[in-house]
Amino acid sequence: MRAIVYDGSTTELIDGIELAAPGPRDVIVDVAAAGLCQSDLSFMAGLYPVPSPAVCGHEAAGVVSAVGEAVTHVKPGDHVVIATLAACGVCEPCGDGRPTACLSTLGRSRQPFTKGDDSFHTFAATSAFAEQTIVSDIQCVKIPKDVPLASAALVGCGVVTGVGAVMSRAKVQRGETAVVFGVGGVGLNVIQALRISGAKTIIAVDTVPEKEALARQFGATHFINGLDEDLVAQVGKIAPASEAADRGWFNSGGVDWAFDCVAHPDVTWNAFECLDWEGTVVVVGVASQTAEFRGLYTRLTQVERGIIGCRYGSISPHRDIPRIIELYRSGDLLLDELVTASYTVEDWESAVDDLRSGRAARGVITFT
Ligand SMILES: NC(=O)c1ccc[n+]([C@@H]2O[C@H](COP(=O)([O-])OP(=O)(O)OC[C@H]3O[C@@H](n4cnc5c(N)ncnc54)[C@H](O)[C@@H]3O)[C@@H](O)[C@H]2O)c1
Ligand SMILES: [Zn+2]
Ligand SMILES: [Zn+2]
Description:
By secondary structure, the chain is of the alpha/beta class. Helix content is 25%, strand content 26%. The protein has helices at residues 38-44, 92-95, 149-170, 185-196, 211-218, 231-238, 265-273, 317-329, 348-357; strands spanning 3-6, 11-14, 18-19, 26-35, 54-55, 60-67, 79-82, 113-115, 118-122, 132-136, 140-142, 177-181, 201-206, 222-225, 255-260, 275-283, 306-309, 339-344, 362-366. Strand 15 (255-260), helix 7 and strand 16 form a beta-alpha-beta unit. Helix 3 (149-170) crosses helix 4. The structure holds nicotinamide-adenine-dinucleotide and zinc ion (2 copies). One zinc ion binds next to loops. One zinc ion (ZN) is lined by residues 87-88, 91, 93-94, 102, 104.
């Protein structure tokens, strides 16, 4: 079969790859569609300290092809979203519904893909850029067959990450205000989850002006170009403490929440500066291993601001993915509109170019 492999320096499509037989708790999935997330580009750029060569891709949906003898909750023919969390299911965070804190979900890799004497690691426990992949049973969330698989694929990362950041990590309340930096596959889902949660003001920020229409389609009430030097002041005007208030040295006025879906030091600084008293920055973007951020102490203690990180939307896949699918079926959550373009696997480099241009919502790679 064909798969896209990153070998530590270059990425290429390789044919003739074979997949191991499933172990007792494994599931083999025919990948129908796989979204291209910015994290895939970061991996292909060598920014992540994970083993290679590896089969890339981590955002997918497909059809179960085979299951190990101990697998009970899915069977061949079922449609599934693949969650990247290969959680153990028995540790304290897993038992508490917080598998993003399960220690089994980080830094483990296996090599189920081979070609001749070469073997290839998994990436993000998923390896979605392959005609078939092998995952743990706990990663397979069954979905109704009427959900288009290209749309469902995006639930596997971008949707859960953005929606979960708002609903599970921040727990945004009706009437609150927010700014979202980075209107990509993740940021658009932050925006629509803010709309669904009843946020009063949703300010989208992106350096690509063409993103304004998409941002507004998903629920943004305002759009600011991320290159504007006065963007913090613009946010302060949209969400003032009171009509006459000066921001002062503690920065009154601004938003309750700032979602950083970029993770560049300048963006994180601006996100922090956009906050009102008691506001919180939620960092969703993933930077390189050595990137640092900075901020002013005066913005913290007396005015109870904070900054928190968020992995995979802090979700629990078997609880939250069915909820997301229900929100889609009820018309509240846009999924089909996220798929800007579909590419055959041979054309995967066009998908990369389009993501780099910043104009796409999400591109999806297909294998049939
Ligand atoms: N925390 C997690 O579990 C998790 C999961 C998935 C993705 N991510 C990360 O989230 C980030 C976003 O991923 P994505 O797939 O949505 O990426 P994307 O490429 O689809 O979107 C990023 C957007 O940010 C915009 N942008 C770039 N620089 C900017 C700036 N200075 N100010 C404002 N906007 C700017 C781009 O124009 C683009 O629209 C990446 O860092 C990715 O690695 C994190
Ligand atoms: Zn666990
Ligand atoms: Zn991702």
